[in-house]
């Protein structure tokens, strides 16, 4: 992972490289009700639910392309 910071010399709006990919992924994960709020007691549990959410998204996407 690489943190992209805005240049100090930029005076106007500039698009930061590949930031939209991260924001889009967070938006997809935000649609999962369990991940909407932080209810988990441990980091391992939270990571497991994020993994489950990703698996759900990928299987739905694969199934959608399979039946076209």
TrEMBL record:
Record-linked InterPro entries: Transposase_11
Domain of life (superkingdom): Bacteria
GO biological process: DNA transposition
GO molecular function: DNA binding; transposase activity
Residues in Transposase IS4-like domain copies: 2-58
Ranges in a coiled coil: none
Protein name: Transposase
Species this protein is from: Rhizobium mesoamericanum STM3625
